[in-house]
Amino acid sequence: MTEKLTNATIITEFLLMGFTDDQVLQGLYVPFFFLIYLTALMGNLLIIILTTTDQHLQSPMYFFLKNLSLIDICYISVTVPKSIINSVTKSYSISFLGCASQIFLFIFLAGTEYALLIVMSYDRYVAICHPLYYEITMNRGTCLQMVIASWASGCVYGSVHVAGTFSVPFCGPYIVHQFFCDIPSVLTLACSGEQILEYAFVIASFTFAFVCFLFLIASYVFIFSAVLRIPSAQGRCKTFSTCIPHLTVVILFLFSGTANYLWTNSKSASSLNLFMSVLYSVLPPSLNPLIYSLRNKDMKAALGKILRVNCY
């Protein structure tokens, strides 16, 4: 115990060394990240504008989609701008408080997004399996409570994990082999045997997330069985077009995060680690606007109205 206390030191900053060892990646990722960030920002802002201004996009599904876009803007803004600035200025340090804040905000927003995706699956379940009760069940007050509960659960989730991560003593070296502070990379800097509490939190979190995912899958079993009973082929296609994008986003978000936290080794720089981190931290906010908008006729019609108004 004495040896552990002796080796632990007071930390003032960490070094984010995700891409610095690979000169090719270092030269490519700044324009790539900047392009991805602008795409995510513009796509999600467009969804927020459309679902706010167009009177045909005022249903609960679009209310939840508006909140999802807001979360995605915040989610990608927690990590990417700091990484770009670090690379441009050749300064890879992040303060202890900055690292803790980044982990809290990242986990907070990830937890909120996952909770909101579960809420959106329930919305689709009620709309398709119980259409006569949809307006009563998914009224404005209920939708607002569900969104508030999603944000609150994400805040609790982030608080628990940042407390568990930074309650352990760190023994150095204080080099994080990632382009942002994430829990697996930071925990590798902790003194040996001190990470048990946060690992327990991570396992409990993924267990709970997996149980929620099973409920989501069960809801989609009922949804697809109801869709297949629709006599019209056009009706089936229209209903599937509102469900498949949501299921795609959930699977991408959940399994890429699970792979990064449970299957990769963050003790040293690794292209696989970086790829998995990009997959769950950068791509979902960028792809969500495309996934939800390309097959949605109402969104296309609302965008067409705005473009026609601007042309005239």
From TrEMBL:
Cellular component, GO annotation: plasma membrane
* Domain G-protein coupled receptors family 1 profile: start-end pairs: 43-292
Which CDD domains does the record associate with it? 7tmA_OR14-like
Regions crossing the membrane: 28-50, 62-80, 92-120, 141-160, 199-228, 240-262, 274-294
UniProt-annotated location(s): Cell membrane
The UniProt keyword set, sorted, is: Cell membrane, G-protein coupled receptor, Membrane, Olfaction, Receptor, Sensory transduction, Transducer, Transmembrane, Transmembrane helix
Domain of life the protein comes from: Eukaryota
List the membrane topology term(s): Multi-pass membrane protein
The answer, when asked if Iron-sulfur is one of the entry's keywords, is no
List the molecular function annotations (GO) for this entry.
Answer: G protein-coupled receptor activity; olfactory receptor activity
Tell me the protein family, please.
Answer: Belongs to the G-protein coupled receptor 1 family.
Say what the protein does: Putative odorant or sperm cell receptor. Odorant receptor.
Give the PANTHER family listed for this entry. Answer: OLFACTORY RECEPTOR
Q: Which protein, by its recorded name, is this?
A: Olfactory receptor
Q: Gene encoding this chain?
A: LOC104993376
